Amino acid sequence: MRNLTRAVKIGSVTIGGNNLIAVQTMASTHTTNIKELIEQIKTFENVGADIELIAKSVDKVRYNPGHLWHHEPKKSWQDKVQFIAETAGKNNCALRVGINCGSVDPSLMEKYNQNPTAAMLESAFSHCSLLDKIGFKQYCVSLKDSDPNKVIKLNIKFAKQRPDIPLHLGVTEAGLPSYGIIKTRIALEQLISRGIGDTIRVSLTLPNDRKYEEIIVGKRILDDIVNKRVISDVRYDRDGLNLISCPSCSRVENEKFIELTGEVERLTGYANDLIKGYDVTIAIMGCRVNGPGETMNADLGLWCGPKNVNLMIGSIRIGAYSYDTILPALKIELDKIISEKKLNAVN
Predict the structure, then answer these.
(1) pTM summary value
(2) Same fold, 8-226 and 240-346
(3) Distance between CA atoms of 43 and 21, rounded to whole angstroms?
(4) Architecture of domain 240-346
(5) What integer is the mean pLDDT of 90-111?
(6) Residue 108, phi-psi category: left (phi > 0), alpha (psi -120 to 50), beta (remainder)
(7) Contact (CB, 8 A) for 288 and 305
(8) How many angstroms separate the CA atoms of 66 and 77, rounded?
(9) Mind giving me the DSSP string for 243-285?
(10) Per-residue pLDDT reduced to its tens digit, 46-81
(11) pLDDT, tens digit, for every residue of 152-185?
């Protein structure tokens, strides 16, 4: 039995209430290339997309509370949200309060001693309370992490306290289809089976001409849940190498990022057996918007720019490498981490 959330209208689609769970994706072509954008949208619609996310959105706008903290820092976040809500209301737009593990409000992270789960939940509850207070009701919320176990925990906690708010579900930076589908499936099965969720997004690292596959995967997962073809007994275990990468979108400044992600998966295959019993995360991010924050939380991060790839260890930048020379540098640093973790385990 699904939570009976409030209904939110997004153009011709309504999520929440008694409506079916909507499947959505995000356009990955540059929005200045109208021809390619329209062709991609038509492809999405042909495979059954209910909602498409476009940088030039009309029916719904997503804002990230963590990014608001950095924009016009002299203004309070409350004033910024009020402006967004008033503008959305005047233009008949819905809103999504999109909270992401890699870009949480720094003041909340400090308050909760760098505990992202507590910080993300307070951020969500605070923004919902403000939107309710100013009378804006056409909104939904998303709480995303690259770890499906954390996605499950976050959304269960939120839904328990605010069962009236529609939830947009997804695993952020799930990565390449080979492992990203499993991460996403586990989170969606656990949540939807509890009646939680009103719209879903499958975020996979794919080239533009295969982006429609996110819709097919999402619909297949929903169909399997309805027909009880599930793998929910399988626990996603972070033991070993964990690769995360963002879904390609119009912010990607060099499409070699997608090819690089596949090369990283192949290169690091040797490490899986070497680091059993340890937890090593490599993040490959395709733009400067999410790159710095997301890679900071990983053991090794590749933040991809137009010409170079920034190699990070936590918040420390090791150097900038061309797309042709980054892999050997990555392997050197990965080998160091493996050796350090084994040495620490012995000691």
Answers:
(1) 0.82
(2) no
(3) 20
(4) 2-Layer Sandwich (3.30)
(5) 92
(6) alpha
(7) yes
(8) 10
(9) EEEPPP-TT-S-THHHHHHHHHHHHGGGHHHHTTTSEEEEEEE
(10) 999 988 776 565 789 999 998 887 788 889 999 999
(11) 999 999 999 999 999 999 999 888 998 899 899 9
Q: What DSSP assignment string belongs to 222-242?
A: HHHHHTT---TTS----SEEE
Task: Map tokens 């963002």 to a residue.
Answer: 246
* Sole residue written with tokens 């005047």: 90
Which residues face 62 on adjacent strands? 96
pLDDT (average), residues 269-281: 75
Quote the crossing angle between the two packed helices 116-133 and 148-161, to the nearest 10°.
40
Domain 8-226 class? alpha beta
**244 - beta bridge partners?**
283
Q: Which two tokens stand for residue 48?
A: 């059954």
HSE (side-chain half, CA atoms, 13 Å) at 199: 28
Going by C-alpha positions, the residue among 186, 169, 179, 175 that lies closest to residue 234 is: 186
d(Cα 41, Cα 29) in Å, to the nearest integer? 10
